[in-house]
Design goal:
Layout: H1 18-149, H2 155-158
Amino acid sequence: MTFPLGLAENSIQLVPDGTLLLHVLIILVMVYVLNRTLFKPINRILIAREERTRGRLSEAEEILRNVSQKISKYEHALRGARGEAYAFTEHERAGAMQDRQLQLSQMRQEIADSVAREKAEISRQAEEARSLLEIEARRIAGEIGTRVLSRPIGGADMN
C-alpha cells in the first residue's frame, strides 16, 4: 500500500540545527573565494574588453568624422576648382571670340577696300574701253561712210 508523502512515517523533516549555520558559513566562504578568484578577474577582463571596444569604436568614429570632413573639404575644393576652370575657359573663349570678331572685321574691311579698288579699276577700264570703242566706232563709221558714200568723210561730218 502506498501512502502519501505527508503521512509517511519515515519522512524527512527539516529542522534548523547547528549544521545549518555551518552550511551558510561554507556558502559564504565559497562566494568569497569564487568572487576573489573567478568573478572579479572575469569582470575586470570584461570591463577592459568593453573599454577597448568602446575606445576602438570611438576611435573609428573619430576617424570616420575626420574622413567625412576631409571628403567635404575635398569636394568643396573640387567644386571651387571646377568653377575656376569654367570661368577661365569662359574668359578664354570670350577672348578668342573677340579676337575672331576683330579678325573678321579686319578681313571684311580688307575685302571692302579690295572690292572698292577693283570696282574703281573696272570702272576705269570700262571708261577706257568706252573711249577706245568710241574712237574705234568713229573710225569704222568713217570707213563705212567713205565706202557707202564713195567719198572721204571729214571730222565735221562725223559728229
